[in-house]
Amino acid sequence: MTAMFENLCTLPLSSDLFAQALHPTEPILAVGLSAGHVQSFRLPAVVSSSDDEEADANTSVISTGTSTIDTEWRTRRHKGSCRTLAYSGDGEILYSAGTDGIVKAASSSTGQVVSKILLPSDPSGKPDSPSLLHALSPQTLLLATDSAALHLYDLRAPSTLSSIPSQTHRPHDDYISSLTPLPPTATSTSGLSKQWVTTGGTTLAVTDLRRGVLVKSEDQEDELLCSVFAGGLPSRPGRSSGEKVLVGSSTGVLTLWERGVWDDQHERIIVDGGRGGGESLDAIVLMPDDVGDGGTNVVVGVGDGTIRIVKLGKNKVIGELRHDEVEGVVGLGFDVGGRMISGGGSTIKVWQEKMNLEDADEGEEDSDEEESGSKKRAADGSDSGDAGSSQEEDRGRKSRKKRRRANRNKNAGNGIIGLEGLE
């Protein structure tokens, strides 16, 4: 297997990462941390090799390795852990939800809170905690919880702390671990998604905005943890429409589900094998069309700290990267410049296609290449001291996904950069 990406930099965080989100139109990364903080980073602009001579020395990680990752804003947004983050479709609003039972909508550029929603209690009347957020459309916000509730909020109505969801569904018996919108059909007049796939416990379900839960799969006898939609695959009349949902499991198996055939999985890909079952697949993202080898690939975050690249069609792992030696990968995404962002433990890593890096560095000294990933800049503030109690809240939940490995000594090297002001 060949490495398709090169690590540009490693960004230390003040406490464990629980959520990450990428802005839809700008090179901006938001992170939600175990201590309740939400922080927004602006990544350096991507400059191609043909622009290197004209580019400012501090604008491109690719050309110089000395660009900065700037903290746009940072705040202690939630009293407990920040469990989940989501941008609105236009990127103007960043939604966050924490174990304090509150959803907050803030300006993505300033971090200023503009509205709040109080989570409904669970069926027993106790406070519920969020597991996922997703802005389905400009009108609808989806909120999943630990009690297996799926709340729908109408964003056209002003949100207050006494807000009541417009709909509530319970597609699973266990907490909702992933949510993937299904693209609108060719007959859609709005062009907006109205159906989505969720995973929870050992089942997959499809819910419709107007009709509620449509179908629930058979028991898969394996915990389902993450999911992503992949279209444009080869179609086979009567067998495949070329549209599938890929689901990562707790035993290292990636299952493929044919759109419209939701009772059971269609194919299986072993991403991480082992006698007793492989490591958990905790995060998954579809590789953009203009990144990689031109095929349809997905990137999977594994509980052992590796990142696996899987080619669909051949249905096999074609590449492997290392995010961390101990902590699992819980966040994956691609920014607007095609860079891959991985998150897990208390670090974020930024990756660039290896081919592009080699082109950008052509003709430079080897020593210059070696230091290109080592000079970065720091996140603002120092809050590592207040992470303890909040981290304890979710320790049980993290262990379910096998995110905690043996208590081995972490290597502080691996290209990790010292960030100014971070203690």
Describe the structure concisely for a colleague.
The chain is mainly β and 423 residues long.
Structure commentary:
The chain is mainly beta. Helix content is 7%, strand content 39%. The chain contains 5 helices and 28 strands. The protein has helices spanning 61-64, 354-360, 366-371, 388-393, 395-400; strands at 5-12, 17-22, 28-33, 37-42, 70-76, 82-87, 93-98, 102-107, 113-118, 130-135, 140-145, 150-154, 167-169, 176-182, 195-200, 203-208, 212-216, 224-230, 244-249, 253-258, 267-270, 281-286, 297-302, 306-311, 316-322, 331-334, 340-344, 347-353. Strands 1-28-27-26 form a 4-stranded antiparallel β-sheet. A hairpin with a 5-residue loop joins strand 2 (17-22) and strand 3.
Q: Count of DSSP helices?
A: 5
Largest pleated sheet: 4 strands, antiparallel
Low-confidence stretches: 52-66, 363-393, 399-423
Mean pLDDT: 82
Give the number of DSSP strands.
Answer: 28
Return Rg in Å.
Answer: 21 Å
Distance between the termini: 38 Å
The helix fraction, in percent, is under 10%
- Find the structural class using helix and strand composition: mainly beta
Characterize the overall form.
globular
Spatial order of strands in the largest sheet: 1-28-27-26
| Beta-strand content bin | 35-45%
Biased composition (Basic residues): 397-408
Region (Disordered): 358-423
Protein name: WD repeat-containing protein JIP5
Organism: Diplocarpon rosae
